[in-house]
Amino acid sequence: MKILSNIKTKVWSCVWIALLAYLFATIATSISNSRINTVLTHIEEVHFPLSLKGERAFTLFKEQTKHYESALLTGDEDELVKANQLNDEIASLLNELIQTTSRSHKNFYPLLLSLRDSYEDYFLIASEQYLAALRSPDPFSITKEMRRIGKVRDQLRADFQRKSLMLTETVVQEIGNSKQSATNNSRLLQALFVAVLVIITIVINLIANRQLILPLKKLRQMIENFARGKSIERPEICDENDEICTLARSFWDMTEKLKKISVSKDYVDNIINNMSDSLIVLSPSLTIQRINQSTKILLDYEENELLDQPIQQILSRDEESSTPQTLFNELCMGKSISSLEMTFKTNTGNHLPVLFSGTPLYDPDGSSIQGIVCLIRDISQFKKEIKKREIRINYDPLTNLPNRNLFLDRLHQSVGEAKRYQQKIAFFIIDIDLFSSINETLGHETGNQILQEAAERLKKSVRETDTVARMKGDEFAVLLNRINGPDDADIVARKIIENISQPFPFFGTEIIAVSIGISLFPKDGVDGNTLLKNADCAMYEAKSQGGNRYLFYNEEIQPVLN
Amino acid sequence: MRNLFKISLLTLWALWLTGTCCFADDVALVINNNNPLSSISRRTADLIFHGKKTKWINGEYISVLVNNSQEVYSVFCQKVLKKNPRQYLLYRKKILFTGMGIPPMVKKDDEAVIAFIAKTRNAIGFIDKKSLDSRVKELKIH
Fold first, then answer.
1. CB A150 to CB B99 under 8 A?
2. What is the ipTM of this complex?
3. Percent of chain A at pLDDT above 70?
4. Burial of A218 (0-12, 13-18, 19+ CB in 10 A)
5. Which is deepest, A225, A412, A419, A519, by most CB within 10 Å?
6. Number of domains chain B contains
7. Mind listing the pLDDT tens digit for each residue in A231-277?
8. Is residue B20, in this structure, part of any structural domain at all?
9. Does B72 score more than 80 pLDDT?
């Protein structure tokens, strides 16, 4: 099919097929006409002359008979001469008929031969007898001969008539046969035309379909696929004269170039679905229009469960009810929000801390807001990490009590608060007596157990609002907020000593004792450091007095030298 | 002119006189004595002499004779056949030519006719009435 490369040759091929069919039909008509022509020529050259000559011979014979009759009736010998003269013509006509039929009409030939013989016999007798009758004084004397001639003539006349009629009938029959043949030919030609018409219709349809319509359909399919964003196949390599194929290839080349310079929908979808952050597109009426894969995973919803649902469905109720509404209203007004911490609610009811960013999505012409693009980042893990870190920084891992840092921080806070509200604070420094020797004799593990148990007993000795902390080694601190006076501190100090002095289950009958130094705000200091320092002094003082006691700071206590 | 008219009239009269005096007055149809017939109609006679009636009542073929004696023949043609003698001659020649019928046999005079009829049972002919004799029987026309 290389020959049919371009549209021009394809169209011309269809035209040529139609012309060939026309030629074929014309040839068929010519053959048919020529056949009819042959038959008509045969009639013209053979049958018709035969009929004419037969008729002529018969007419001449009748004329001859009239002359003989006239001669006999009138006794005019001229009539006899005329009759005899006709003989030559009749004989020659009969001979011509015989000659013609000998070639083409074998069935007529013997009949005409016998006719000629009969005529010649008749003529011989007739010419002689009529002359005799004419010259005889009494013609009735040869009545017998006359009768015989009359009978022969009658037979001959009947024979002439019959054969002349046969020849005429043959012409009529031949014309009839020609008519029938022409009718048959015409029917055959009609059938042939219909067949040729059907065949060329099918062939032209096939060519047009295969060479023009199918490639164009493929091209259209390719363009439609491209318009829908589907992938398209590379067209086969073809002749450069094939316009359709060249067009398809040019289109393909164009799409390839377009792919390089533009971003396909698939590409964008792919990006959106593979984003680690969750993407939610809201309509201006704050219903969810689109979500990505991360959103589904994060919130544990199927896509159809969320689409067209209001945004409130995934917002945590713990959020202040007015905040998100205000926030989204602002977004709808065209404001952008970035990295706002919010809490979302998952399908299972879990509350999820997230960082929320929202941007209004404008129409391509920028006239109105089409929706809001929300980007949500899950920060629950981050939050947990922060909390862990916080614990690690501010708490003592052995006893789970706040460490020195946190305690000092709270102390400063409490001091500030107490200053503002003119409250009183008691600050205890508690140190386990002889802890280093316990550690040395019983080991660090027992030492740690003692520290843990002591921490528990300290917590039980104070109110829930008070703070117990481990400052270092075997040194603890207690902060009593909003006390009425030294008496409250005194009660707590006693309770601590009592609780600690209870036997430790893993420590046998040995008693653990502690020394407590107490400083009071604002009496012993108006800032944390002073209070700490003074309580420390009081504790050392208590320890120096033998331990297992508590001591309020007073100015007589010597400052501890580091 | 008047003389010429008179001459013509005289000539015609003379011709009429000779015709009546010189030609036979009447003819008679004659048949064989053994023929039982005695008379026939003029029409039948006409048919017989034109060859259109060919058989007697008993089925025998009629043998027709023509008397070639010019006077008798003329009278016969005019009185019996009501025809010009030449017309009858042509008629007979036509029959002779066609060969379809048998033309009447020709006898030269009354004697020949009588002689032939006398010995031929189924013959018929015509003669001058004056020539009638016992050898033949006259067939009357009614």
1. yes
2. 0.74
3. 96
4. middle
5. A519
6. 1
7. 788 888 777 788 888 888 888 888 888 878 776 677 788 888 888 88
8. no
9. yes
Instruction: List the structure tokens of B36.
Output: 């039982």
- Calculate how close chain A gets to B95, using CA atoms only, in Å: 9
| Longest CA span, chain A | 221
| Inter-residue contact A100 to A107 (CB < 8 Å) | no
Look at B92 and A153 and tell me if their CB atoms are within 8 Å.
no
- How do A514-521 and A549-552 pair as beta strands? parallel
Interface residues of chain B, partner chain A, Cβ below 8 Å: 66, 68, 90, 92-94, 96-100, 102-106
Of A138, A148, A150, the CB nearest to B97: A150
**pLDDT tens digit string along A335-364?**
888 888 888 888 888 888 889 999 998 888
Contact yes or no for A146 and B99 at CB 8 A:
yes
**Cβ proximity of B47 and B124 under 8 Å:** no
Residue A369 has which token pair?
A: 């807001």
Query: What are the respective helix, strand and coil percentages of chain B, to the nearest 5?
Result: 45, 20, 30
B8 inside domain: no
Residues B76-88: tens digit of each pLDDT: 999 889 989 989 9
Cβ(A413)–Cβ(A425) under 8 Å? no
User: What residues of B are in contact with residue A140 (Cβ under 8 Å)?
Assistant: 66, 92, 96, 103-106
Rounded Cα distance between A128 and A140, Å, is 16
Residue-number span of the structural domain to which B115 is assigned: 25-141
In a domain, B101, yes or no: yes
Q: Which CATH number is B87's domain given? A: 3.40.190.10
Walk me through the domains of chain A, giving residue ranges and CATH numbers: 7-200 (1.20.120), 274-380 (3.30.450.20), 395-552 (3.30.70.270)
Interior angle at CA A89, CA A85 and CA A91, nearest 5: 105
Specify if B96 maps to a domain: yes
- Tell me if B97 and A148 make a contact (CB, 8 A cut-off): no
Find tokens 């990490």 and name the residue: A385
Chain A contact set for B100 (CB, 8 A)? 150, 154
Residue closest to A516 by CA, chosen among A531, A491, A497, A495? A497
User: Are A154 and B99 inside 8 Å of each other by CB?
Assistant: yes
